Amino acid sequence: MSKYTKATLEKLEAIFEQLDYKVRYEKGNFRSGYCIVEDKKVVVVNKFFDLEGRVQTLLDILLNMDLDLSVIAESSQSFLNRLLAKSTASQ
Predict the structure, then answer these.
(1) The CATH number of the domain where 54 resides is what?
(2) Nearest to residue 12, comparing CAs of 83, 71, 70?
(3) pLDDT of the residue at 91
(4) Stretch 70-76: mean pLDDT, rounded?
(5) Residue 1 lies in a domain
């Protein structure tokens, strides 16, 4: 059973939206399961990933990108902090 829900994925997608990034799910040969088109602010995630794979990929992107998280809503920041704490605790 997945430790993430559809609501978790939707909240992560909303964070990207607040950062002016579009999240798309498409097929392709992605070494890491995703690619980022910086100049267009598009994140493309492998569409064949299951729910947990999509959530984990979006979390990885947020952790590895140099983003100004102060532009996202306070509720989104606290959600992200809880999710990251949960994610690192389970590793």
Answers:
(1) 3.30.2010
(2) 83
(3) 61
(4) 92
(5) no
